[in-house]
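Notebook entry, structure prediction.
Reason for the run: the old model in the group folder had no record of what sequence produced it. Starting over properly, with the input documented here first.
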Amino acid sequence: MQIVIFTEVSYPGFGRYAGTYRVATELRDSGYTVQVIEFFTRMDKDQLLKVIDKFVTKETKLVGFSCTFFLPKAMGWGGRSKIRKLIRTKNVEDALDETTTSPGSRVLTERNVGTEDRESNTATGISNLLFGRDDMFEIFDRIKERGNPRMMVGGARAYLAEDPPFNSEIDYVIRGQADTSVVALADHIFYGADLKVGYQKGKCKIIEEKDYPVDDFTISRIRYNDSDIIMPKEVLPLELARGCIFKCAFCSYNLIGKKVWEFNRNPDLVARDLQEMYDKYGSTGFMVCDDTYNDSVDKVERFHKAFTSLNFQPTFSTYARADMMVSKPETMPLLYESGMRSVFFGIETLNHQAGKAIGKGMDPEKIKDGLFKAKATPGWNEIVTTSGFIIGLPYETEESIHETYQWLLRDDCPLDSFSPTALTISPDSSMGLNMAKYGYQWDENGSWYSEWMTEQQAKDLAMYYSRQLVKKKRARFQFTFFGRMQNIGWTLQDFDNERFTNDESDRRKDVVQYNYLERLMNL
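New structure, fully documented this time:
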């Protein structure tokens, strides 16, 4: 292969990362041969070296690492949420220790990475944090032995590769959306085409999204080939949209404030993708990548028309806004008929004053009534409903949070599960840019506090209510877990009848990995 990209599936269960295959599709459409390799962090060293020896040859000029799902193994299936909480750490060793021991840990940022030698314990620890492996420098050495291809890193924590000890090993970091920039990089490496470089650290050159904007996402596709080793009837990721029309105060997403059809893919094109994946792999289930599936009635109606025109019934998980659905109840049956079977609502708070402060001002009682109405809609008993709740918002006290969770834990609650998270204030969010306006300050340790709560209180409460979540039967079948668990053989009925066990889930995941690697080595 000319290009090899290592990536990792998302857990629990088994779920592929859409971004890696979106990039692979663009490279393949541009004429390059590309091998995507899953289970990068879960393979043992001997197995990974054999994979490298098979696929990285003298023909290979570019090796990529898609790091979004690369997580330290010790962090377990809850690692992603812990990584997000690790912010503003002043000491590398403390950060690495916290990622494996503390439920309320902080993210290691580029400014915290020291200049330690690649052989030091700290360098090994940072390798684990970024790449999910503590043998990464041995992996680099083997790749270079196979023909010395250029190496690139992309994904959520790619910026960590810009600093020592990685910027002497990694040649390129791609920041942001890579649909366009990755092709420009390949053209540069293979054919000497010009390449715009934002800046350079050590030998590492940083390619920025602003120099290679993605202007054609609405007509883009993800197409798989035989070398991707798609399982029969696999639940696959599906990009519908890349952006959001809303501007929540706590959100630092850079694609907010969009117009509905400037960032949503054409429904007929999406339906074509679904039909192709059904015809090739028998896939009927999909993990939809869309920040707000129901951001307009027109969108819900158009996707309903496209999906119900197929010769099979698709099912999918997605994000949606509860307040949008409640205000437009005519969309409730359309969502079910379109195939929605697991939905994550970003309600965030049931405190009316807090909701208004962050841009979610619907009366909480109206939201509750609307959720009960949705659950009473024909078919909705088959839909797994969950919502995120942020602890630490303006005007929210421990007393009001307790009232919220008492309601969430009721047997008749229309939400099947919930996801409590301590507030993180991003400097790029409206809240981070206007701390005083929202009632926040930083303390001497870099933690926020307000007249209503401290960051540590919020973390303690989030952990406490996370432990209560196990009382909900469908808690581990929520949102994208819905598809990931199906990929290792679990059904909604298994969860409703309490047949699920962690040990059996781990066994099934190991079987999927074994079968994947066996097929990979036989390509």
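Summary: Confidence is low (pLDDT under 50) at residues 74-117.
The old model has been moved to the deprecated folder.
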